[in-house]
Design brief:
By secondary structure, the chain is an alpha/beta fold. The chain is about 30% helix and about 15% strand. A 6-stranded mixed β-sheet has the order 1-5-2-6-8-7. A two-stranded antiparallel sheet has the order 3-4. A hairpin with a 4-residue loop joins β7 and β8. It is globular.
Length: about 240
């Protein structure tokens, strides 16, 4: 596949490449399913789903833990999926859900996994995660969302370690669930493992998102200080 011409030089360095040296990512903007044309090194995978210019990026672990192999949509096919998407809908990130038909209408939201491939029996190994990390990083930087919502212990630890200055060792998911952590260019809202949610956990996330959408949550930088006329020049 050809390289993505519209990405920054920094993002292009992170794109996975095939044996012939070309990018394994293609921009396919007319599709919610796998809009970047990810081609991971596996037979079955659950690639990203949603708006490529999303303000919110919901990040899970892998299909074995968080589902989606049947529908091709992250966070589906699990007993807790309905409650999970209901909380996101009440929070304003989802406009319509038909899990039986495998359809999801998202509002400024993108869903993806740290490890999109089906690991088969058990969980992915550390080597497996390392192999697929460039695919996740490419999507993370291509979407450039303002708010990251890592779901589950591994995603929370990874995002806190790579996108904030907060220590990611021994994270208490109960303590950080539905709270704000300001990172380097992102606002992070950790989400505890949905399989362990109580009604209060779902309500806390829905309320956090509702309050956030009512505020100016956008993460921007003002480059106006570099301009001779001193006018504001906000960039993402």
């Amino acid at each position: 596949m050809s390289k993505i011409p519209w990405t920054s030089a920094e993002t292009r360095k992170l794109l996975p490449v095939s044996d012939n040296g070309e990018s394994s990512v293609e921009f396919v903007a007319d599709s919610d399913r796998n809009p970047f044309g990810m081609d991971p090194p596996c037979e079955r995978s659950v690639p990203g789903y949603g708006d490529t210019s999303a303000h919110f990026h919901v990040i899970g672990d892998n299909p074995a833990r968080h589902g989606g192999l049947d529908t091709g949509i992250p966070f589906t096919d699990r007993p807790w999926s309905a409650a999970f998407f209901d909380a996101l809908a009440r929070g304003g990130l989802v406009e319509g859900v038909d899990l039986e038909a495998g359809r999801l209408d998202l509002d400024r939201t993108f869903l993806s996994y740290l490890h999109m491939c089906d690991p088969g029996e058990g969980e992915p190994t550390e080597s497996d995660y390392a192999t697929l990390e460039p695919f996740f990083d490419a999507a993370l930087r291509a979407v450039t969302a303002h708010v990251l919502l890592p779901v589950g212990d591994r995603a929370i630890e990874h995002i806190l370690a790579t996108c904030t200055s907060k220590s990611a060792t021994a994270v208490d998911a109960d303590a950080v669930h539905a709270t704000e952590v300001h990172g380097s260019g992102w606002l992070v809202i950790p989400v505890k493992e949905p399989a362990t949610w109580t009604d209060a956990d779902a309500e806390a996330l829905a309320q956090m998102l509702t309050d956030l959408l009512a505020s100016d949550y956008r993460q921007t930088a003002d480059l106006g200080r570099f301009l001779p006329d001193e006018e504001s020049h906000l960039v993402r």
